[in-house]
Amino acid sequence: MKRTIAIATVVLLIIVYSLNAFAANISLDTSKTGDGVMGVTIHGEEGNRYKVMISKGSEEYTYDCFGTEKEYFPLQFGSGSYKVSVLQQISGTSYKVVQSKKVNVSLNVENAVFLQSIQNVNWNFDMEAIQMADDLAGSFSTVEEKVETIYEYVIQTVDYDYAKINKLDKQYVPDVESTHVSGKGICYDYSALFAAMLRSQGIPTKLVKGYSDNVDGYHAWNEVYINEEWITIDTTLDAVLGSIGEETKMEKNKNEYQALKFY
Q1: pTM, rounded to two decimals
Q2: Which residues of the chain, if any, have pLDDT below 50?
Q3: Do domains 14-109 and 128-262 have the same CATH topology?
Q4: What is the DSSP string of 38-103?
């Protein structure tokens, strides 16, 4: 029986592809592209909404921007030529391109992007969640042991928040520290927390969105790089199953998961 543990659906955007005069002060930071991330800072007019669109070939991801602090976004399609655009809201779901830049990316290390702090896997070493990851994994020497002990911690200490899914803002992104401290979250929160904790241990981890045979609706889970192979792990599903006394296995059948986006 499928579990209803989904995240909010995606909103279709209407984008006007023309550069226009704008009042925002926009900074595009390419200093960390070798690590697979792009920094964006937007000082816009109060009340205006902005998005960042990053594309490479046929792949195109769009992100909401928040506040005036620098945010980092993943360049998850490997080395090559990317296009980074900043969009300003016209009305509703209509946006215009106000700044665009081509960025040539040459990764220093394969999978480096899946070790970084980015907008929806935002972490730093001062966080309680990250300090806990170090406490849990510090006594183990292998990647498998580190992943398993953090996995067990997440599924045992975070409860699924059934009330939250019905009142989410469409711009919602996870707060890793809040999920850890509150011990509650939806699948997006679980996967962001798990990714942040593993990344802090030097273990490449993807946050993945899409669909699963085991879950109703749009879902989020993780893929973790272990022994040169990406392993599918669904902490949300296992936390829910564990809460009703069902046995779970950490590694999932990847054929039961359809990935649409990964970060």
Answers
A1: 0.92
A2: 1, 19-22
A3: no
A4: EEEEEE--TT--EEEEEEETTEEEEEE--SSS-EEEE-TT-SEEEEEEEEEEEETTEEEEEEEEEE
